[in-house]
Design brief:
Elements: H1 15-26, H2 35-48, E1 52-56, H3 59-69, E2 77-81, H4 87-94, E3 98-102, E4 124-127, H5 139-148, E5 152-156, E6 164-165, E7 168-169, E8 176-180, E9 193-197, H6 200-210, H7 233-244, H8 246-264, E10 270-272, E11 279-280, E12 286-290, H9 295-307, E13 313-314, H10 332-337, E14 341-344, H11 352-365
Helix pairs in contact: 1-7, 2-7, 3-4, 8-11
Bound molecules: pyridoxal-5'-phosphate.
Amino acid sequence: MNSNFIPISKPSITQLEIDYVTDAITSTWVSSLGPYIDRFEAEFAKFCGTKHAVAVSNGTVAIHLAVHALNIGKGDEVIMPNLSFIATANAVMLTGAKPVFTDIDPFNLCIDPAKIEALITPRTKAIMPVHLYGHPADMRAINAIAEKHSLMVIEDAAEAHGASIDDKKVGSWGRCATFSFYGNKNLTTGEGGMITTDDDNFAAKCRYLRDHAMSKEKRYWHTTMGFNYRMTNIQAALGCAQLERVEELMRKRQFVFDLYQNEFSSSDKIKLNRTSSWAHNSYWLVCAEIEGYTEAMRDELMLKLKDKNIDSRPYFYPMSMMPYISEKVDTPVTYSVYKNGINLPSYVDLTEDEIVYISKTLLSLV
Ligand SMILES: *Cc1c(COP(=O)(O)O)cnc(C)c1O
């Protein structure tokens, strides 16, 4: 790969990250005990406005652990948007529960609350909104439906650290929420995840289950089947540094998006992320939808961009289409929107010149 290639994503690593990680290794606390774990959990909870945050090994197991700890499993159904990264469905399926796919709002690409109620059955246990590409789902409407039908709400906030509705951050709206700190997410720990909640008992249960459900009174005695879903102190050190810089990182993501928006504002062929009036977007990925494009045209466009040293990626495919799920569901918006959407390079160290180059190149190709 040549040095001019502009990747889709790149973490922002400064001397602070290097210092904290070096400190963690030097201290010899390299596994899942150590001061950075406690600090990262406490500071992340504070950032989200929740009582608890439980650090785990990645965002996928965060979902699995949360769903499992809420006693959701075989015979149960969880309603989720059809457009998401596959981990949302897989982690639920791993518990034995069935994902029930619903449609999205074409404006903000998140679950459409108006489509939820028709899918509720006696087996429905929870609604799992996804804050897609950094845009918060309509949590007020979702929580109202959940309350009416006595359902739990689990936010998949993997892509939206810092996004909010009014001043209330994602991660604090549901019974619990899950985050990812994968290398391309808004905050990273390399690999990592978090569960946030206000529920004392649920948080304690998650901590217990992530550590093989080992009895506190009797070592190597396990009262139920648990997991090793622990985060390491080294990962948490990286997370502490990122969290210290979170306001800067969020400001820069907004700045990057604004520069793109400026370049595309007069195009009637391409529209970028839309943000609902009640939402504060954390702009994980810049989304570009190309009017009238088919899947084949989109794939060809991405190859042409690559020739010009610009990385891009397609929107997620509807999860219901995956061969091991292969379900026809009534989600027309999802089935149409995924075909002409791509994500453009989105990271805080992109220069203004690069953004102008990417935008002008894309506009010249459509
Ligand atoms: C990234 C992501 C996950 C999974 O996180 P990992 O840390 O990669 O396991 C889950 N859900 C969504 C919506 C994601 O984007």
